[in-house]
Design goal:
Layout (H helix, E strand, L loop, with lengths): L2 H48 L5 E8 L6 E18 L6 E22 L4 E9 L4 E8 L13 H4 L12 E2 L7 E2 L5 H28 L1
Parallel strand pairs: 6-7
Antiparallel strand pairs: 1-2, 2-3, 3-4, 4-5
C-alpha cells in the first residue's frame, strides 16, 4: 500500500468519525430534554405513591449518599388545596398547579442509594412523623436477574412497613422484627435495607427531629 492510499484511508476514517460524532451529538441534544422530562414525571408519580393520602409533596433539601444527588421531601395535608391549570412553558402542555393553604406534615419521603452486588440501588422510603417506615420502593438497579432483582418483589418490600431505624437490620433466616435476607442475595438485601433505607431514615432524623419536636 502506497503512502497516498494510506493518507486517503486515514482522511476517510476521520471524516466518518466526525460525521458520526455530529450525528450522535444531534440525537442526544434532541432526546435528552425528553428523557429528562420523562424521568421527572416518573419520579413525581413514584413520590405520590409513597404517601397517597398527602395532598402535596414538597422538596425539603438535598443530600449525597455515595456521592449521588438525592432529595428528601415533606408529604403534606392541606387545610385547603387550590388547583389551577397552567401551561408548561417547556412542553406546551397543561398541568396542575397546586396551592397548599395551611399545610401540615403527614410524614417524610427520602430518596437514597445503596451499594449492591453489581449496581447502586436507587430507593425511595416514606416515614411517618415518628420516622417509622410506611413504604419503600425500588426505582432502579442492575442487580443479578433471578437473585438480586428479588428486591423488587412485594414479599421483600412489605417487610419494611412499621420498622424503625433500629429495626432496619438484615437477618439470615426468619425474623419477626428485622428484615429477612433474600436467599442468595444478602448483599443486595443489605444494600437496600442498611445502606439505602436505614441511612436515609437516619439522615431524616438528624435533619428534622428537632423541627418535629418543636
Amino acid at each position: 500500500m502506497i503512502t497516498k492510499d494510506m493518507i486517503k484511508i486515514t482522511v476517510n476514517l476521520v471524516v466518518i468519525y466526525v460525521i458520526g460524532g455530529l450525528i450522535m451529538a444531534f440525537v442526544y441534544a434532541k432526546t435528552s430534554p425528553i428523557m429528562f422530562i420523562k424521568a421527572k414525571e416518573e419520579k413525581e408519580a413514584a413520590l405520590k405513591l409513597m404517601m397517597p393520602e398527602a395532598d402535596t409533596v414538597a422538596t425539603l433539601g438535598n443530600w449525597e449518599p455515595h456521592e449521588k444527588k438525592a432529595e428528601y421531601y415533606a408529604a403534606r395535608k392541606c387545610g385547603e388545596l387550590k388547583i389551577t391549570m397552567v401551561v408548561d412553558e417547556k412542553t406546551g402542555k397543561e398541568k396542575e398547579e397546586k396551592e397548599c393553604i395551611d399545610p401540615s406534615d403527614l410524614g417524610y419521603i427520602v430518596e437514597g442509594f445503596g451499594k449492591g452486588y453489581s449496581s447502586y440501588i436507587h430507593v425511595l422510603a416514606s416515614v411517618d412523623k415518628n420516622f417509622i417506615v410506611q413504604k419503600i420502593s425500588v426505582l432502579g438497579h442492575g442487580e443479578t436477574p433471578g437473585l438480586g432483582d428479588e428486591i423488587e418483589k412485594d414479599y421483600f418490600l412489605n417487610q419494611f412497613k412499621g420498622k424503625s431505624a433500629d429495626n432496619l437490620v438484615v437477618i439470615k433466616g426468619e425474623t419477626a422484627d428485622k428484615i429477612q435476607a433474600i436467599t442468595g442475595a444478602t448483599i443486595s438485601t443489605r444494600a437496600v435495607t442498611e445502606d439505602g433505607v436505614k441511612n436515609g431514615v437516619k439522615m431524616l432524623i438528624e435533619k428534622l427531629s428537632g423541627e418535629v419536636q418543636g
